[in-house]
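User: If you would, consider this record:
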Amino acid sequence: MTTREHDASVYEEVQSSSEFQELKRAFRRWTFPMTVAFLAWYLLYVVLSGWARGFMAIKLLGEINVGLVLGLLQFVSTFLIAWAYSRHAEKKLDPIADKLRHEVEEKTQ
């Protein structure tokens, strides 16, 4: 067996392991709903900007209107999602990924 074949079999073994499947499930359980939620939030902003101009033009404080606040909240929500994902990855994904990485490193050396 060549080194290339040996490495491929190790990765195939890891990919079929229950730990790897759990890692994929934990990743998907968080990212898919969060992606859908963010895209829905973004689409709402776009739709309101295009078809609810009167609503978006409502002044809240001086020259600051609803559209500006919702636009800025797009940036805020992006940073909050990134922060929340980093916490999720640190607690749920990284321990499993580190364990799998160590197993692969041991088998390929």
Remarks:
- Residues 15 and 21 are 7 Å apart (CA to CA).
